[in-house]
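Thread: Newbie trying to understand structure tokens

Hi all, I'm a second-year student working on a class project, and my supervisor (Dr. K.) asked me to get a predicted structure for one chain before our next meeting. I've only ever worked with sequences, so writing a 3D structure as a token string is new to me. If someone could post the tokens and maybe explain what I'm looking at, I'd be very grateful. Here's the chain:
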Amino acid sequence: MADIAVHGGAFWDAIGADFGDLRRADEIINADVLDAWFPPDPAIVARLTEHLDWLMRTSPPTRCEGLLAAISETRGVLPACVTAGPGSSSLIFAAFRQWFSGVRALALRPTYGEYAHVLDHVLGSKVDAFDLHREEGYRVDIEALARAAAGYDLLVLVNPNSPTGGFLPRTEVVKLLDLLPETVAVWIDETYLEYAGSPNGWSAESLETEVARRPNLMVLKSMSKVYALSGLRIGYLIAPAERTAELQRQTPPWAVDLPAQVAAIMALRDSEYYPARWRETATLRNQMVEHLVGLGWEVAPSSANFVLADVRTSDLETERIAQAMMERGIFVRAFPEGQEELRRYGLRLAVKDAATQSRLLSVLTEVVKSPKG
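---
Reply by user tm_fold:
Sure, no problem. This is what the structure looks like when written as tokens:
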């Protein structure tokens, strides 16, 4: 398809998009997408398995009533401020069509490419870039960003950012919001926030509860990457009640399928399994960073389930490394478009379980040290 945002997922070419032989999934490593390295909570899998035939043939609650109540309960937000959808991407498309057609928007660069795509190619909005720089560790200068964004209608902030992994603590984001006029709508995407590992706990870093007192703030949450539910497609948006009512009027009934609603409610109420996996992710990420630095590469500071490396000290550029890895059944994320420096030298790797990650890094080392890649 032409004129769509570029994402990972090339591994489906190896498995087969018709799902004819899913056993092939055990033969490849899909480190080009940012799905969780761990399985869903076993209690969720058991519940879905036990009732799967009924869940597959039964219509879900029309407006996700139980799911919205669970989000409100576990996140401490007003029910009137919550909209659920079949994945965060569907909420981006729906909300931006509703509110941000024809606006002037500012987004970080690099960041998640779907935002620029929707604003520019789908809605015809004007979207400018606030550039982050490799030599500065892709750090975000809050005061400079506030000055730059003050004249725009919309500021988009992914936190932790993708593909860099950079994280702004809640105190910094609140400072940004305080510096901005309320005429600037602020959209914060917290897809990877639970991986951030704050000493105060991830929930202390989220801006979800801040929405109640800021009419210009919207917070998007995905349940794919941190809850290992990517295949079920579930996300939610916290926005001021007036905006939420507008969006829900445009939302069709049965928007989220029944297995996804059951899994999401159980995941939201879990307080042990997932936090333990998030802590393990930090350990695995640190091990990956140590290995990449050992290859002589520069690695951007990351608080997510992935890292961004700069491979310019190698004889090979990113595209060749990615191709050589793919030939060995391992898929990593190169960037075929965007900033020239990132396109040539940026390589993003998803964190994997210890055994899989060991294989990934071993093959990567072999590729880099081979004369031909």
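A couple of things are worth pointing out once you decode it. The CA atoms of residues 101 and 123 lie 5 Å apart. The radius of gyration is 20 Å. Feel free to ask follow-ups in this thread.
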